[in-house]
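Milestone M4 deliverable, item 7.
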Amino acid sequence: MSHDHIHNHAHEHCHGHCGEHAHEHHHHNEEGELRETIVKLVLSAILLVVAIIIEKNTDLKTWQYLLIYLIPYLIVGWETLKEGAEKLLEGEALDEDFLMGVATVGALAIGFLPGAGTQFPEAVFVMLFFQLGELFEGIAEGRSRRSISALMDIRPDTANLETPEGLKVVRPDSVAVGETVVVKPGEKVPMDGVVLEGNSALDTKALTGESVPRNISAGDSIISGCINLWGLLRVKVGKPFGESTASRVLELVENAAGNKSRSESFITRFAKIYTPIVVGAAVLLAIIPPLAGGGSFATWLYRALTFLIVSCPCALVISVPLSFFGGIGGASRRGILVKGANYLEALTRLGTVVFDKTGTLTEGVFEVTAVHPEIIKEKELLHLTAHVERHSKHPVAEALRKAYPEEADDCNVEDVREFAGKGVQATVNGRRISAGNEKMMEELGIKVHGCEKCGGAGTIVHVAVDSEYVGHILISDRVKSSSAEAIAMLKAAGAGRTVMLTGDSAKVAESVAKTVGVDSYGAGLLPAEKLSELETLIDTADKKTTVAFVGDGINDAPVLARADIGIAMGALGSDAAIEAADVVLMDDDPRKIATAIRIARKTVGISRQNICFAITVKLAVLLLAAFGLAPMWLAVFADVGVTVIAVLNAMRTLA
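Output delivered:
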C-alpha cells in the first residue's frame, strides 16, 4: 500500500460513495489490500531474520549476500520502487516513494564501497519500517474516510415509481418532476416533494444532526436523504434527483475540499520550496565533506541518504488537509454544512454576528392576532387583504390567507404591484386595494390612524380601498425558545458583538432584541438598507476578526454573500440558502452557530499542532542526520512515524 495510494484515500469522498454497493465493494478491496500488506510484512521480516543468520554464520561474497537480502527487500519494497520509478518518468521525482527507493538502493550500493561494510540489513529494515508505518497510516485514514462516507451515504440507489402496471423499482435520476414515488418503512426518501398520502415520522439525523424524528403527513413537504420510520408514504416529486436536497448536500461537502484554508495553502507552498532545498542539501552533503577530506565517501553517502529519507514533508501534506476534512465531516454530522476549510478557519476569528429576525431568531410562523377595521366590517377587511395577497409567498401573506380560509379564486384580481419590503397593491373587482406598512401608505399619500389599539408587538398591515384608509391587521411572530440561549452561547464563545437587522417596525424589533439579548438592532430596513448596515459593521469591525450574517437564505441572499461568513438558517431544501451561504445549518436552531465555532477552533488547533510537531521533529532529525547521529531507522520514524501520529491526531476532528 503506497503512500500515494493512501493519500488519495483521504480525498476519495468526492467519488463513488453515492451508492451502497460501490461503498461495500471499495470496503472489501481495502480489506484485501490490508491483508496483502500484512502478509508481505510478515514474510519479509522472517526472510530478513533468515538472511541475518546466514550472514553471521557463513563467509560468502558481497554480491551473494546482496542476492539473499534482495528477496525480503523486493517482497516488501517492490511496489514502492515501482511507484517511485513511475513518478520519476512523470517528472514528479520528489515524492516519498522515490526518495525512499533512492535511499534504500543507495544503502544496498554502499556495501560495495571499499571499507564501508554491508548496509543490506538496514536497507531491508528501513523498507520494512516504512511499509509498517504506511500500514498504520492507511488504517487511520481508512477509518476517517469510512466515517465520512457513512455520514454522507444519504442518497438512495433506488426509488419505487408508481406506474399504470404497479410499483416499479427504478434509478432515482430517471424519475421526472410530477411523478409519484412510494416510500416504504425503513427506506430513504429518494426525492424532494410533497406527501400526497400517508402519515409517518422521518429520521432526519443524517441531514440535521437531530435525533428527534419529524412527524409528517399529507400536504407536508418532504426532502431526500431522510429515512421513513414506519408509515407508507406516497410522494409527488417536486425536484429532479440532481437538484434534490441530498444531492445538493453531497455536492456541497464534496466541493468543500477545493476551498483551502490558510494553513493548507501555507503547507502547499512550504512543500514546494522545502523539499527541493533539502534534496539539494543531501546531494551536497554526500559530495563536499569527502572531497574536503572530512571522511570517507561511504560515510557521507550514508548520512546523505538518511538526510534524504527525512526530507519528504508527508506528515504535513497529508495531516493538515485531513484535519480540515475531518472537521467538515464532524460538522456535517451535526447538521452544519461548511463549504470549505477557509470558512471553517474564518469561524475561529468570528467577532461580530449579525442576525436577520424573521425565521432566524423568531419562528417565522406568522398568525393574525388582532383585526382593527375602521369603516368596514372585520370579515370584509380580512377578505380584501387575502385577495391582494393571494399569490405572494411572503410569510405575512400566508398568515393573512390563513386567517380568511374562505378566500376563493372567483374574484378578478389584476394589475398587481409589489412595493419591495413595504407591501402590495392590486385591483380587485374594480377596486384598488393597498396592503402594506406605514412607509407604503406614506408613499401613496394615505394617512394611517388607530395604531394605538395594537398593544402587542407585531407586524401591522395597513389596508386602504381606493386611497381611503379602512383599517389595519396585527400579525405576530413567536420568538424561538432557543434564540436567547444561542446569543448567550455566542457571547461565551467570544463573539464580541451581536446585532439584529429587520425590516419590521422599531417596536417589534425592540421587543425581540430585549427578549433574545442582542447588543443592538436596526429596524424598518429594506433589503438594500440591510446590506448597507452590514457593510458599515464590516468597515468598523476589528480587521483581525470576521463578520457573519445569519439569515433564512431566501430574502437575504445579497447580505449572506457580502458577509465574511454567510450562515443560512432553517435551510432544509432552500436552494437560495445553499447557493448564497458559506455555512448552512440544516435545521433552524441558532445554537448550532456556537457549535460550529467550537468545531472550527478544535480543527484549526489540531492542524496547527500537526504543523508544529512535524516541522520540529523533521528539523531535529535533519540536523542529527547531517552530523551522523541519526541512523536510517530514526529517519524513517521522523518521516512515516510522524505522519502516522499526525494522521491519528487529525482524526480527533471527527469526534
